[in-house]
UniProtKB/TrEMBL annotation:
Keywords: ATP-binding, Nucleotide-binding, Transport. This is ABC transporter ATP-binding protein. It comes from Devosia honganensis. One of its GO terms (molecular function) is ATP binding. Residues 7-255 form the ABC transporter domain. Signal peptide: none annotated. Belongs to the ABC transporter superfamily. InterPro entries: AAA+_ATPase, ABC_AA/LPS_Transport, ABC_transporter-like_ATP-bd, ABC_transporter-like_CS, BCA_ABC_TP_C, P-loop_NTPase. It comes from the Bacteria.
Amino acid sequence: MSSDLVIDVRNVTKRFGGITAVNDCSLSVRRGSITGLIGPNGAGKSTLFNIVAGNIVPDSGQVIFDGKDVTGCKPHELFRIGMLRTFQIAHEFSQMTALENLMMVPGDQPGEHLVGMWFRPGLVQARETEVRKKALDVIDFLKLGHVRHELAGNLSGGQKKLLELGRTMMVDARIVLLDEVAAGVNRTLLNDLADNIERMNRELGYTFFVIEHDMDLIGRLCDPVIVMAQGQKIAEGPMAEIRANPAIIEAYFGAPAEVA
Ligand SMILES: Nc1ncnc2c1ncn2[C@@H]1O[C@H](COP(=O)(O)OP(=O)(O)OP(=O)(O)O)[C@@H](O)[C@H]1O
């Protein structure tokens, strides 16, 4: 029934003391879509996102990933099975080049194990060559060739975001969770970033689940857009429909919408 769904959130509830941040919420992300999640402040978006990403365990309900119940799984377990969340390049990686940052991503490289180092040096070399080639492909895809030997710490805000996106391409992600990707990025670079997200979606088949305050970016990238209010999904559809829905305007502004 749900083979078309990468993520299926079923009746999830999460309380913090007296506050019900997510209230019996059900929503899903279709394979091959760029699905957006929006809603007024305090709607429960971040909590829901953190539950999907394995950072928060819900009080009840289930998160199904590719048909498998992953409720309560840790982020690193989800990473292994193809659910990736972009994250800021950590301080210690800022002293490595863009290319090295990408080459660091895949775990389980034989060279990381002592046994592999001593007994299978050929394998280590072959694997490194393969990882380097993949990293160069990713760099090419994102058009970051001119900064591949630049230290990550010296990249612009937008280039760093592209590199973060690139890290998700180093492993076989089935879905990428994008968290406030527009924050701190200027308009031109945001356009670049959006282009790349669209190309990853169209050309490489990535599915995205996007939480974002920038409505222009959501409008450009996402279909469907899911609207949350008071811990629940209140609507889902194309952005144009969402913008024209009086009930949603009321949820955002707390007053009946003026219908022209
Ligand atoms: N760790 C926490 N402890 C206590 N209350 C929390 C915690 N996290 C979230 N909440 C509360 O849960 C509710 C939902 O918060 P959440 O951050 O999920 O909403 P949001 O839609 O992401 O809001 P925003 O757009 O402002 O980030 C809010 O009332 C918030 O104060």
